[in-house]
Amino acid sequence: MSDPGSPLLIFDEQLLEQRAYWLQQLAALPASSAGLPLVEDLSDEPTASWQQLSVEVPLDLSERLRKLTSGNTVLAHCVCTTVVKIVLYRYTGQSPVIIGVPHRCGGENGSAGEALMILDTVTPEMSFRKLLEGVRKTLAGAHANSRYPFSRLVQDLQREASASLFDVTVAFDSVHVPMPDLGQNLNLRWYESNDRYGCDIAFRATKYVSTTVKQFAGHMLRVLEACLTTPQRPIQTLPLLDSLERHGLLSLGCGVGAEYPVLGGLVERFSLVSGLRVSSVAVGDG
Fold this sequence. Notes:
Blueprint: H1 13-25, E1 50-56, H2 59-69, H3 73-92, E2 97-101, E3 116-120, H4 128-144, H5 150-156, E4 168-172, E5 186-193, E6 196-204, H6 210-229, H7 243-251, H8 266-276
Parallel strand pairs: 4-5
Antiparallel strand pairs: 1-6, 2-3, 5-6
Helix pairs in contact: 2-3, 3-4, 3-6
């Protein structure tokens, strides 16, 4: 049996082409992947490895999303992936933004334990519509080159097998197979049920607390609504916080004011300084 860490001898021309595609696509792979803000290190907490919560998209927003995608679940996944990338970018300012995506249901490519890496450049002035176009092309290219094994790609990129290449994954229930555990900390699995969209969020409880994940879910819904309302709006101006969150942040700068001595107006201050510097020129005309 060959050593799994040894160089892969490829005689399949298609695999060679796909390997070249992935190495070019991931040439700008960041040193660390974007994720949610960490509250604290929870590695010693006596809790289950994974926890889950669900969020429903409001009916009116679901109808607008369905209208945009014409009910196409693959396009809906593109929209949801774009929204997630926007929120992660707003959290970290890191670009490109990378997420993981499982293989599609019924596909011949890929196997258990495999996934795809979706890397997109994000800039503050970029609009949702522009980023959506890019994400759609990236997803299409990734699925078209999904035969090349993920495990071999990790070796090609000279990354440790235990080091996750992405922190967040995004899937759509009727489109993708279950996401394998590849070291990520957050799995988003969107779905459509009873005329509404929703998202099941599974998170590693040793990394995130439920309050952080709930806040993230709220940010996703606010960004989704803003994107569907004004798709040409620059990403940096999209609303992320609700009124309560904004009030909480603003109140941090509203503490008890310090008392400073009152020196009077300009005349009083001028007289005071002049008296301290009697040998200096008080006023010059140039």
